[in-house]
Design a protein that fits this description.
The protein has four helices and five strands. It has 164 residues and is an alpha+beta fold.
Amino acid sequence: MSALELAEQRARAAIGVPEQRSLGVVRAEDAAEFARAAGESAPHLVDPGHPGFRVHPLYAVSLLRGAPGAEPAEFRPDGMYRDEVPGTDGLDVRLMAGGQDVHFRAEVRPGDRIRMRRALTGVERKGGDAGFLLLTVEKTYAAERSALVEAVEIIDVTERFIVR
C-alpha cells in the first residue's frame, strides 16, 4: 500500500472524530508581536500599552499549540507538526495548504484562554491513483473568559489540505 493510500485510509477512519486542544492564554505582548510580524503598524494592534489595544483578528487562528517548547519529535521533516494534517503522521507524503475560510464570531481579548476543537469532515481523492487527497478540517476556536461564563465561540475555520 502506498503512503497516499495509507493516508487516505487513515483519514477516512478519522472523519467526524472530534479532537480538542488547549492553545493557552492570549498574552497582549505575543499578540502585538504577531501583528508586527504581519506588517501591521497601527498602535492599537502593535502596542499593548495603547488604551485601545486589540488582538489582531487572525492571531488566534495562527496558534497551533499552547506553550512554546515543542520537542523535535513533534515535527515532520518539513517543519509542520506531525499531527496537524489528519492521517499523515509518520508517512512520507507532501503537504500543502489548500485554502482556508475564516468566520469571526467574537473578538479575541488578552487574557482569553483559547481552546480549539476540530474534526476532519471530508476526504476527496483527486486525479486517480497518481493524484492527491483533499482533506477538509472544520475548527472552532472558543475563549474561556471566566469560571462563571461558558466559553464564547470566537472563530470558525474551514481548512483544506492537499496531500500528495
